[in-house]
Amino acid sequence: MTACPDSSTASKSLWRHRDFRRYLTGQAASVAGSSISSMALPVLAVLHLDATPGQVAWLAFWGQLPPALLALHAGALADRHSKRRQMITGDLVSATALVTVPVAAALEELTLAQLMVVAVVHGAACVLHDAAAISLLPTLVDRSLIQRGNSRIGGLFAIAATGGSSLGAALTALLGPARALLGDVGSYLLSAWCTARIQARETTPARTSQRRLRAEIAEGLRYVRDDHRLSVLTWVNATTSLALAVLNTLWALYLLRVLEMSATAFGVVLGIGALGAAAGALSAPAVARRFGPGPMMLGALALTPLTQVPLLLASPALGWEIVIGGALFLQLACAGAAGTTQRSIRQIITEDCMQARMQAVSTWLTSGARPLGALLAGGLGTWAGVRPALIVGACLLVVPLVVLARSPLRALRQMPAPPPTPEGTGYTTGQPPAAAGPAVPAPGPAPAAEGAMDGGMP
After folding, report:
1. Sequence-separated (6 or more) residues with CB below 8 Å from residue 103
2. What class is the 15-202+213-418+429-436 domain?
3. Mean pLDDT in runs of 10 for the chain (458 residues)?
4. pTM, two decimal places
5. What is the Cα Rg of the chain in Å?
6. DSSP for 370-438?
7. Could you tell me the residue ranges of all domains in the chain?
């Protein structure tokens, strides 16, 4: 699927771009709501349902399994059909699944088994939504504005996550973790409404014959494999995701139970980390111009394992809570800067008709790593203890650094050029595009520049 953006996409002021504002508002609302769930669900499982480390790991496993199974199909569907319709469907299914939790809690029927079912349904709906949402941006704005758009998105999303974490902490304290999830339900409804108001027309490419979904999935896999830039960045994301899955699975349990952190302090720490993500995303364009996209990403990946040291040395004390918050700020600042840059590179060099499938391949690998990381964390946490499991996760964060350091991308000084012929060169033969050779820097300095490097936060 390709879209035909109107002339307003060429505007240098993204804030005056009506469709971009609607897109950004809807996605930011969803991010804020998801931060409420990230705050409320661990508290609900650990403190109210007395979940063991193994049960926490299984809850994480089931929530992370749908992307590993469905990402490739969701990407192919988004390239074939309306991205906006797929986003709205995902939002409505997520809202329906989450609303069952406060209802069951009110009836005193809530169980860990239900949380696992909700995690599966919610995860599947998020796959459908995200595959379409991430690939919709290049159809709304001109490619010359993608890096700047991703920077704005990353900054606003991080601020929304900060507000969501703070709101989640307040709602959890006032209403309890189950009813706090109603905030996330409302965010999905707002996201669906904003998406429905986007007016940019989407057009389905002409097809001489109906192609099998499996063939289009295979085409996406070949496309990423045959472009060394896409393949390297995808493997960096996947290995980062595996390491962070080990850390994420036990992080809430470690802070809430081992370090005896209160639910309110837990939410505040999450909020501090989100501010770091905003700072990293907003500063990414300037840092990339000064040092180059490759060295900047390499430096961010080198700092990330070091940010886990305070977590591993901490003991129950207010001072350590402050130090952990500061380390999380730095970690997510690195993630925001590197994630904004790598996503912009991938979107710039990918043809319109392959945007969703390109992103789906990355989502498939990163999401496939998460259940493995969750199971590894659960096994290590049960057998050796929570702190040794976190040490293993921190050590695994060195792997993506090595992957990028062994690639020519480590020395990339400018953002690459887009495909030479944006229209009329659809990738339908299984051959890589002309830009799939060595990175070709755009003339002049990198343009003024979302999202964190995959993996989120522990």
Report:
1. none
2. mainly alpha
3. 39 65 84 78 77 76 78 81 86 92 87 87 86 77 68 74 73 82 89 85 55 81 89 91 84 80 78 80 85 92 90 83 88 87 85 80 80 81 82 90 92 80 43 33 27 36
4. 0.65
5. 21
6. HHHHHHHHHHHHHHT-HHHHHHHHHHHTHHHHHHHHTSGGGG--SPBPPPS-SSS----SSPPPGGGSS
7. 15-202+213-418+429-436
